[in-house]
Amino acid sequence: MTVDLLRVELGVIWRLDGRGRLPGPEELVIGVAADGMTAAVCADVPGPVAARLLDLVSRGVPSSPGHPPDLLAQCDVLLGGGRVVSGGPCYLVRAPLRFEVPAEVIRSDDPSHAARLRPLRPAGWEPEEWDELLAGGAGAPWAMIVEDGQVAAICHSARLTPEGAEAGTWTSPAFRGRGYAAATTAAWAGLLPGIRLFYSTSADNHSSQRVAGRLGLDAIGWLWKLTPRGSAASQT
Q1: What is the tally of structural domains in the chain?
Q2: 99 in a domain, yes or no?
Q3: What pLDDT band is residue 232 in, cutting at 50, 70 and 90?
Q4: What is the value of pTM for the model shown?
Q5: Cβ burial, residue 28 (10 Å; 0-12/13-18/19+)
Q6: Any domain includes 202
Q7: Using only C-alpha atoms, what is the Rg of the chain?
């Protein structure tokens, strides 16, 4: 059942606690698949409210892809109202994948590239994070394309747990539209045999959705979030 896959992905992305609760700032995440819905509530939400939210979801009817479930409005009221609604599609990555581009794809299972990659840290990566990634720590395994002396594209393990991994992709604006995100994602998938691999994006990120289409990823549903207005997550 695809709702079971969404339940696994939700746990991978948010690393739920022992009670199955979210760490925040999202107060509620609902996974909507064709065959059902699943949800998780923030650890800060009082128990009675959390129970009512989960009961609503358990009795709800899945909405069509791209349309928030009707019960989101009721959930917002239970949480105090005024929450920001956001969402996006989710996909299952089935390795092996191939996507050919006229560029070399560097993989983290070849440590010989680390020295030349270290000074090429892209904007948005802190020096310590970049060093840890190249050393095989948080974010590994990964795949990259380097062109014109800079990192043109990267797919890394945005989340990695025993239950699965979530792809994190980035392409430099100067190199978009060349298929580099698809090529690095395909290479990344080959580095993680034996676990479920997921790819998700936001409703308005059409370029990221095109990557999923290029790779023929299996659409499994949508994740919808209710987030307090003003939090960092509600701005993205």
Answers
A1: 2
A2: no
A3: low
A4: 0.94
A5: buried
A6: yes
A7: 19
Contacts of 210 (CB under 8 A, 6+ apart): none
How far is the CA of 53 from the CAs of 5, 91, 142, 233, in angstroms?
Answer: 21, 25, 37, 20
Q: Directed axis angle between helix 206-215 and helix 180-189, to 10°? A: 50
pLDDT reading at 41 higher than 60: yes
What is the distance, to the nearest Å, from the Cα of residue 13 to the centroid of all Cα atoms in its chain? 6
Give how far the C-alpha of residue 66 lies from the chain's centroid of Cα atoms, to the nearest Å. Answer: 17
Q: Evaluate whether residue 95 is within a structural domain.
A: no
Asked, for residue 96, whether it belongs to a domain, the answer is no
pLDDT band at 233 (very low <50, low <70, confident <90, very high): low
User: Order of strands, edge to edge, in the sheet holding 196-200?
Assistant: 36-41, 28-33, 218-227, 84-93, 196-200, 164-171, 150-161, 142-147, 105-107
Q: Mean pLDDT across the chain, nearest whole number?
A: 95
Please tell me the total number of residues recorded for the chain in this structure.
236
Mean pLDDT lowest among 64-68, 111-115, 160-164, 210-214: 111-115
- Dist. CA 113–CA 204, nearest whole Å: 35
Residue type, 22: L
Q: Structure tokens of 27?
A: 């107060």
Domain that holds residue 51: 2-90+220-235
Q: What pLDDT sits at residue 230?
A: 80
Looking at residue 231, its pLDDT comes to: 72
Q: Report which of 184, 80, 172, 70 is spatially closest to residue 122, judged by C-alpha positions.
A: 172
